[in-house]
Structure prediction request, 132 residues.
Amino acid sequence: MFERLAVESTDAARISEIAVSIWDGVGVALSPIIGQTGVAALFKRSAFLTRTTHPCLSAVHESALPSMGELAVLQAVLSQQDWAEAVAVNAALLQNFHELLISLIGASLSDRLLRPVWDIPPCGDAVQDTII
Prediction:
């Protein structure tokens, strides 16, 4: 799901640009469904969860992100890492975001909404999410 980051560059600055592009796409895909505030809240929660394993994200979590359009802090943080760490940090952030989103709207809807952003190939017939 996050291969695009690892294969397109070995430069942290380029990785950070790709990451911001992915996050912009996430915002575009989800804002009509959960609103910009909802996307920003999920992003901020994901940064909070991810900073336990990647402390460099503390600056992202502590910054005021009123909308997903303000990803300059994330870009700055990622560009200061070596390329492997930049890839790992953003992959972990995306994974936590995805898991949070799944817990809210279900796996199949989440995957359908994010497929164009994350280049997820279709899995054939979608399985209906079970709501308990």
Notes: Residues 3-118 form one domain. The chain has a mean pLDDT of 81. The chain has one domain: 3-118.
